[in-house]
Design a protein that fits this description.
heterodimer; A: alpha+beta; Ribosomal Protein S5, domain 2; five-stranded mixed β-sheet; 10 strands; 29% helix; B: 237 residues; alpha+beta; OB fold (Dihydrolipoamide Acetyltransferase, E2P); Ribosomal Protein S8, Chain: A, domain 1
């Protein structure tokens, strides 16, 4: 134990490589409506992660036979740009990207009122511009903002965070190095208001108590991310509102 | 306090809008006695116990009887496929164009070709079938001149205004004819291309803002601004 291959991930004071405490999120900034040509969009910076999400739809399904008679189809495409990682990534969709597209779709689906627009589709394109660990959960956080920005009817937003295990201790929002040399990684996504989990995966070994503790840590971090999501959406449109009304709300 | 939002507040999907006995208008859903916003919208508190949610973005869903402005995108053996700026493609059948039965040999592209713009009315629509259109009514049919302005479908009601006030105002002051399609397309037809441009500009500007409390006043101001600045330009030229 203690960091595989002798890599020290915690210092004497229990701080992580980037100086964070175990339950500290990286700096997170979300911006809504950054693209003009998409129906909805969002950009997230979580530490050194940079992810852009574009949402198109609801629109007609192509190919036609994929359309569902009673509900909307949700399609996600997660892809990493060739320069998003230190060694050039082949632009062809890898096994990992195909799988992440699927889990992200399944994490977003429960939040959407799919029955509102039958026989249509909503396409979510996620482009990872720079990756530094926990990109799948950051993508989910940004994608739900982009969906809301596109005017898709939803029960709640979805936010995600990963809990990792480094040197035997649980740490929230792990970065690339901690993911690589740590002992475990557990991405969790939730609908913050409802408190329901829409994604939970785990890689590595976690005891029963650790899972319970990880969920609690994730819940707290997700509440913070939820605030940032709301801020991003409201700021985008409140700014416009203030310009119209000269800064005051009319009675 | 049953209403949990302030007037003019932006609400995100899933945000609590009101609790208990109160009226919530616009896209929302309820769980027990709590009412939540369904889409990103602006909350307008109309009465102490009534709140209206105005969606910031919404795609057009056809409703029977709506007048829409469509573009021909494809021609089938007995119908035209019309893009009505909605997730659903509309069909305009030959029987809704000709009064009498016709033969299959008839070349439909001679009547409406791909790219033509039509003003049509929604005959029928349910989510299981694509909307059907008709042009068998006065003031409907192919468009031969004018400016087509595209606006977000969620902002159409603003262009119409209360009881058509905004449309009527623009018509009177600019001397242009306006056809507002419910699907977010506005056709401006005027004698003078300058006036057409002013009308199009005012419509575009009115739609830029997320929420305009008094569209008529805003329209008046925009028209005055536009006319005076144009006057300057022509004065100099």
């Amino acid at each position: 134990m203690g960091g595989a291959e002798g890599v020290k991930l915690l210092d004497e004071e229990g701080r992580r490589l980037d100086g964070r405490a175990l339950n500290e999120l990286r700096k997170c900034r979300i911006e809504a409506g950054v693209l003009k040509n998409a129906n909805g969009s969002a950009y997230i910076e979580l530490g050194r992660n940079k992810i852009l999400v574009a949402v198109y739809g609801p629109r007609e399904v192509h190919p036609r036979h994929e359309a569902l008679p009673d509900r909307m189809l949700l399609r996600c495409k997660y892809s990493m740009l060739p320069f998003s990682v230190p060694d050039r990534k082949n632009p062809a969709p890898s096994r990992r990207e195909v799988e992440l597209s699927k889990v992200i779709r399944e994490a977003l689906e429960p939040a959407i009122f799919l029955e509102e627009y039958p026989r249509t589709t909503v396409d979510v394109y996620i482009e990872v511009i720079e990756a530094d660990g926990s990109t799948r959960v950051a993508s989910i956080t940004a994608a739900s903002v982009a969906l809301a920005d596109a005017g898709i009817p939803m029960r709640d937003l979805v936010a995600g965070v990963s809990v990792g295990k480094i040197e035997g201790k649980l740490a929230i929002d792990i970065n690339g190095i901690e993911d690589q040399y740590g002992e475990g990684d557990m991405p969790i996504a939730m609908m913050p208001r409802l408190g329901e989990i829409t994604l939970i995966q785990a890689d590595g070994r976690f005891t029963r108590d650790e899972v319970v503790q990880a969920l609690q840590m994730a819940r707290e971090a997700i509440a913070k991310l939820y605030e940032e999501q709301k801020r991003a959406l409201k700021e985008k449109y409140s700014r416009i509102l203030e310009e119209v009304e000269g800064g005051e709300v009319v009675r | 306090m049953p209403i949990r939002v302030s007037n003019g507040q932006v609400v995100v999907p899933g945000e609590l809008v009101a609790e208990g006995r109160c009226e919530v208008l616009g896209p929302h859903f309820s769980s027990g006695r709590r009412h939540y916003a369904k889409v990103l919208s602006v909350a307008v508190v109309e009465k102490p116990r009534r709140v209206r949610l105005i969606p910031l973005k919404r795609s057009y869903v056809p409703v029977e009887g709506d007048v829409v402005i469509g573009k021909v995108v494809d021609i089938g053996p007995t119908s035209w496929v019309i893009d009505i700026n909605s997730p659903y493609m509309a069909l305009l059948q030959v029987s809704e164009v000709f009064p009498r039965p016709t033969t299959l040999q008839r070349d439909l592209s001679k009547i409406l070709k791909v790219g033509d713009v039509v003003i049509a009315k929604v005959l029928s629509f349910d989510f299981a079938h694509d909307p059907l259109l008709t042009i068998k009514e006065s003031k409907l049919g192919k468009v031969s001149k004018g400016l087509l302005v595209e606006i977000p479908p969620s902002r159409v009601s603003r262009i119409i205004g209360r009881k058509g006030q905004v449309v009527n105002y623009l018509r009177d002051v600019l001397g242009v004819e306006l056809v507002v399609g419910r699907n977010g397309r506005v056709l401006v037809v005027g004698e003078d291309s300058e006036r057409e441009a002013v009308a199009a500009y005012v419509i575009k500007r009115l739609c830029e803002e997320a929420y305009v409390p008094d569209p008529l006043a805003a329209a008046k101001q925009l028209v005055e601004e536009a006319l005076s600045s144009r006057g300057d330009v022509s004065g100099r030229g």
